[in-house]
Amino acid sequence: MTIDRLKKQVAPPFIKLKKSQENFFSRSLGFQAKLALAVALIPIIALTIWYANHVSSEQQRMHQAYVNNHQLILEFSSLKEDISALEKAQKNNHLLNSPALQNSIENKWKMTHKRIILLKNAIVETALVANWQQVLSLVPIYDSHLVSYKDLHNQLSTTEKLFHQALAMRLAAKRANISYANHWFVALLLILLPVFIMISLALIHRVTQQLYKVEHTLSRLGDGKYSGEIELHGSNELSKLGQKLSWLNDELQRSHAQKDSFLRHVSHELKTPLSSLSEGNSLLQSDDIGILNLQQQRIVTIMGTSLTRLNILIDDLLNYSAASHPLHQQKRKALNSLALDLQTQFGTHSLSHTKHIDWQISDSTEGLPYMPCKLILIQLINNALQYAKHKVQVSLSVQNHIATFSIVDDGVGIESSELAQLMQPFFRGQHSHSHSGSGLGLAIVEESVKQLKGNIQFNNVESGTHICVQFPVEGSQ
């Protein structure tokens, strides 16, 4: 029972703290940034304001100390002049023996006595006060004939040194106060700046982490991984972006499903009647149903050509759809196995006396995405065979986790003005009008190369065209 009670007492504050943290981090990034900067900057600003006010007041005190010291120095100088003047007046009075002058001297000594007391009280320093006391003992108040001017001058000289030292010490104390404030300011600033930097780095790290989440999610959508939930938690902006990306994920998933369903229906609905039309056209071309006249043979030939083009177009559309499938869904085969399938498919060309395929294949056991690579090579080799005069050279290799497909033909080459449009679907160049095709071949190649995160280059060689495809294989990505 005691443990359960303890848990009940401890758990609620912890849960409340956790919920308060979640509520804080679920707010907008702008609010979090402002609050973090306020927490970091307010102490620095307060410290700066305190330092500025403190230094300003200390400078005012320092200025006042300079003024007071100057006045005290002037007062001390006046005191020395007055004593020298009294000494001369006393000597003159010995000759004149004037009662009025003597009375004036006595009054002057009384004023000098008061001035000494004021100077003594101005700086309360033990040694200096003791010296001033000795000076006062030598100053006559009632009988000026008893004064010893020599002793008085000597004592004033000693007192003057201590007096100037006391003034210098007072100024040094003021300077020490300013230096002390400077040291405190620097020390506190050195403490607060790392705190400010740590808070800024924590905020940057949090923003960066959220950007990494967004980047990872977008990369996942770009790779066609539409299954699974998109979870973006954190700031208000990130949560809203996560909701929009979830909607986009659902839309892309539905769109791809609709496209695959559409292509399946197209292949079924078009292939079935197309097969019947091809069989009917073959029957018309045979002699089983009778001999056709020239006009009928011409119509049947046009029908056969159109059916062949339609069949090629449907196959290219299906291949174009297959090329856009996500890379992680593709099965993999080694380069040698892929090359063997291609050599088998294009084996009939090796029997031709007009066009020959020269295969150059390096040994590699690394697995390559089978369908994109096969589509790339089939389309490029088919194009090369159509335009080549005598020979097509096919080089396949994998080195340093980079796959390279190189196809070189000795045909007419590619017009430089057509390079920008070459990869567009259904585009056919000026040299392609005498050849059959749908204009989707290079578009299929481009889509497959994108899936492989590679690049393709077209170069006109001395006689013909050189096409090079390169992409990273799994393990280097």
TrEMBL record:
<dbReference type="Pfam" id="PF02518">
    <property type="entry name" value="HATPase_c"/>
</dbReference>
<feature type="transmembrane region" description="Helical">
    <location>
        <begin position="184"/>
        <end position="204"/>
    </location>
</feature>
<keyword id="KW-1133">Transmembrane helix</keyword>
<keyword id="KW-0067">ATP-binding</keyword>
<keyword id="KW-0597">Phosphoprotein</keyword>
<keyword id="KW-0472">Membrane</keyword>
<dbReference type="GO" id="GO:0016301">
    <property type="term" value="F:kinase activity"/>
</dbReference>
<feature type="domain" description="Histidine kinase">
    <location>
        <begin position="265"/>
        <end position="475"/>
    </location>
</feature>
<dbReference type="InterPro" id="IPR036097">
    <property type="entry name" value="HisK_dim/P_sf"/>
</dbReference>
<keyword id="KW-0808">Transferase</keyword>
<dbReference type="InterPro" id="IPR003594">
    <property type="entry name" value="HATPase_dom"/>
</dbReference>
<dbReference type="InterPro" id="IPR003661">
    <property type="entry name" value="HisK_dim/P_dom"/>
</dbReference>
<dbReference type="InterPro" id="IPR004358">
    <property type="entry name" value="Sig_transdc_His_kin-like_C"/>
</dbReference>
<dbReference type="Pfam" id="PF00512">
    <property type="entry name" value="HisKA"/>
</dbReference>
<feature type="transmembrane region" description="Helical">
    <location>
        <begin position="31"/>
        <end position="52"/>
    </location>
</feature>
<protein>
    <recommendedName>
        <fullName>histidine kinase</fullName>
        <ecNumber>2.7.13.3</ecNumber>
    </recommendedName>
</protein>
<keyword id="KW-0547">Nucleotide-binding</keyword>
<keyword id="KW-0812">Transmembrane</keyword>
<keyword id="KW-1003">Cell membrane</keyword>
<keyword id="KW-0418">Kinase</keyword>
<dbReference type="InterPro" id="IPR050980">
    <property type="entry name" value="2C_sensor_his_kinase"/>
</dbReference>
<dbReference type="InterPro" id="IPR036890">
    <property type="entry name" value="HATPase_C_sf"/>
</dbReference>
<dbReference type="InterPro" id="IPR005467">
    <property type="entry name" value="His_kinase_dom"/>
</dbReference>
